[in-house]
Amino acid sequence: MSRLSQIFFTILVLWFISYAVSNFVTTDFRDKIAVIPLEGTIVGSDLTGFVPSTTVKSQTLVTFIQQANTDNSVKGILLEINSPGGTVVASKEIVQAVKDSEKPIVTYIREIGTSGAYWVASASDYIVADELSMTGSIGVVSPFLEFSGLMEDYGVTYNGLKTGKYKDVGSPFKPMTDEERALLLSKMQVIHDYFVDDVVANRNLDKSVVNALANGIYYLGIDAEKSGLIDKTGSRALALNKTKELANISEATELKFEERHYLSDVLGKLSAFSFYHMGLGIGKSLQMMSLKEKNGPFVL
Amino acid sequence: MDIKRLLRKEAPAPLWKRAVAYLIDVLVLALVLAPLQPMDVSYDSLSVLVEQFAILFSTFQFIFSILLVLLLSLAYWTLLEYNYQQTLGKYLLHLRVISEEKHLRFSQCLLRNISKLSSLLLFADVLYMLFSHTSQRYSETLAHTEVVTHV
User: Fold this and answer.
1) If pLDDT is split at 50, 70 and 90, which confidence band does B10 have?
2) Which of A56, A110, A231, A281 is most exposed by smallest CB count within 10 Å?
3) Is B44 on the interface with A (CB under 8 A)?
4) Quick check: B76 contacting A, CB < 8 Å?
5) Is residue A3 part of a domain?
6) Torsions phi, psi of A253, nearest 5?
């Protein structure tokens, strides 16, 4: 081995030592509370691509909860919810992750924690919500658009070739029959019952109470506390203190779990911002032209 | 000593060569120590950054990382000079560390590089060299070592 190779080898060994101990050095061993945000609509997968979205992928949340559980320095988890809910399976995946957590999870509902997001919250050990936050809204919704009347106006006919009787159920190009409506509602009822049963079990409430509350309406924090949908109304600080209490620690630092943003996200936001202002500009120009034509006063 | 050196076709290394070699070594060392960068934080504002620095300073990890940086830096200079009489920078500039005694000992290499752990000490050491007729840093004088180049 030449002298240069030997020198390089020594440098490589030193680098390896440096790399090997770096994980230890950059690790903060103090007790921590993992802060996991659940913001936006819960979805199974984000298909919006470059366009920035206000959705949260269930898998991201599940991974965060699992990571917090495997981190020995994390003693408890604070789930910060600001979400109107989302798709059924995606919500259920997060619910399961919350249930599987070996570390105590306290939920703090800030602005809104309804439907699927409330389902997630119900699975946690303790729920704190702002007095004026929106929560509850236990129910299932499945909106269907129907264009058949519009198509008829334009002389467009729908030919639904299908091999199964209900294969095109919910198609926007034909009116929904009573039978189809009943069929879809029965499936939704199954989901609704599952949701209610889970809330009953999670919150240790009487089924009749939850059934009465599960009418789809949201409840303000103060009402939700009275009905038992949440444990206490209060601030984030209260939720954090409760997390520490359940984790049996007095002092802890916060470890925020956040999705990393890459260049594509930045470009996405930039393009959305540009297009928004482009549209705004065009709209204003058209407005001005229209008003000028009328020779009337106008404001920008 | 001078006759021996002449016979080996060696002369004290010029200052510019030593400076360039040192810069190369500092760059290499920066790469070696890069994984130990103790700050792995994301911050939204200066106040958060300052707060995180304050937390960092109070931790055992920070002290440990500083000690490790010092140790690895010292290991870089000392091990390479003891084993090969050259660091990468000195190799590229054709410089060599020699002992004024019979053999170059580990303790000599350690002593001559101690000042590199502190920029203030190194500054004083280099300042001594500028006014010394032997072109040696003070720590080199203490360690009975010299940096030479081929003539």
Assistant:
1) confident
2) A281
3) no
4) yes
5) no
6) -100, 160
Q: CA A263, CA A50: separation in Å to the nearest integer?
A: 10
Q: How many structural domains does chain A have? A: 2
Residues A103 and A173 in one domain: no
- pTM for this one? 0.59
Show the 3-state SS of A182-216. Answer: HHHHHHHHHHHHHHHHHHHHHHCCCHHHHHHHCCC
| Cα–Cα distance measured from residue A228 to residue A209, given in angstroms and rounded to the nearest whole number | 9
Q: Each residue of A47-76: pLDDT tens digit?
A: 555 445 688 999 999 999 999 999 988 999
The whole-angstrom separation of Cα A144 and Cα B63 is 62
Of residues B32, B35, B61, nearest to A27 (C-beta) = B61
Q: A70 CB near a chain B CB, below 8 Å?
A: no
Which domain, by its residues, includes A176? 142-214
- Domains contained in chain B, number: 1
Best mutation target among A1, A5, A14 (most B Cβ atoms within 10 Å) is: A14
Q: Give B-chain residues touching A257 at CB under 8 angstroms.
A: none
- Given A156, A182, A214, the domain boundary residue is A214
Complex-level ipTM:
0.79
Establish if A28 touches chain B: CB-CB under 8 angstroms. Answer: yes
Q: List pLDDT tens digits, range B40-79.
A: 444 444 555 566 556 655 566 667 777 888 899 999 999 9
> Is residue A38 one of the residues assigned to a domain?
yes
